TrEMBL record:
Any one cellular-component term (Gene Ontology): mitochondrion
Entries under SUPFAM superfamilies matching the protein: PLP-dependent transferases (SSF53383)
GO BP field: amino acid metabolic process
Protein name in UniProt: Aminotransferase class I/classII large domain-containing protein
């Protein structure tokens, strides 16, 4: 009986603000960028709770399609099957960059550098934050540093997809070293997070989208506009999800307030 009461409490379905639970957003940003990340303390990070990794990635792609000046998005070859499906739906043309060398079953680093080196200035580049899905091949820290330097020298925009934080090394912190190196020098980026696997929240669809940007009118509008734009978008996704849950989840019907 006590466990039933506990369970009942954990299923409170109070309405959250449109951008999600503020504490969750802050902790989620800290999990990927680190406790001491100055970007969070200085309010340069906007985080919104989204529908798991897929929803976070989709919102980020749509946001860039609407607000970023360069439209082409580069994805690694190969990559998670939904990447090349989601990006065109968001309205961005997709190109690929080499990642895998089947002959060595390792990284095709030369191909990767050549492809990103010939990408147009400012292009968006999808980077698997760690434990690359499909192939589990990640660059070493030294190679990441070379990728970072190349990307920054060409103004390429990093969009991290973090669906397996802790799966590569066993450590939540160690797995995000690359992402943290990218933002340590102050460069802007987007990062989508999924908690399906590392928190075993497969069915709950828990995730977050982080936008790190400086106050600049070159690439982005001001943070306040950012927040508003994201609120609009998340509202749309949230609504869709509510309908899906109602249609499919007969074990736990939810009360929806509209
Ligand atoms: C690289 C990558 N991104 C995003 C996702 C989607 O995550 P979710 O199932 O939480 O939507 C996955 C799922 O396997 C993935 O491998």
């Amino acid at each position: 009986m006590p466990s039933l009461a506990l369970h009942a409490q954990s299923r409170l379905k109070e309405y959250l603000p449109i951008i999600g639970l503020p504490d969750f957003n802050k902790l989620s940003a800290k999990l990927i960028f680190g406790d001491a990340s100055p970007t969070i303390e200085e309010n340069l990070m906007t985080t919104v709770q989204c529908l798991s990794g897929t929803g976070s990635f989709s919102v980020g792609a749509e946001f860039l399609a609407k607000h970023y000046h360069q439209r082409t998005k580069y994805i690694p070859q190969p990559t998670w099957g939904n990447h090349p499906k989601i990006i065109p739906i968001a309205g961005l043309p997709v190109k690929t960059y080499h990642h895998y060398d089947p002959s060595t079953r390792g990284l095709n680093f030369q191909g990767l550098l050549e492809d990103l080196g010939s990408a147009p200035i400012g292009a968006i580049v999808l980077l698997h934050a760690c434990a690359h899905n499909l192939i589990g091949v990640d660059p070493t820290l030294e190679l990441w540093e070379q990728i970072r330097q190349l990307m920054r020298s060409k103004g390429l925009f990093p969009f991290f997809d973090s669906a397996h934080q802790s799966f590569a090394s066993g450590s939540l912190d160690a797995d995000q070293q690359y992402v943290r190196i990218f933002i340590a020098e102050g460069g802007e980026c987007l990062a989508a997070q999924s908690y399906s696997k590392n928190m075993r929240l497969y069915g709950e669809r828990v995730g977050a989208l982080n936008i790190f940007c400086w106050i600049t009118d070159i690439a982005f509008p001001r943070p306040l506009d950012l927040q508003q734009n994201l609120e609009d978008k998340v509202f749309i996704y949230g609504d869709d999800n509510i309908m899906n849950l109602e249609a499919t989840n007969d074990m736990s019907p939810r009360q929806v307030t509209r």
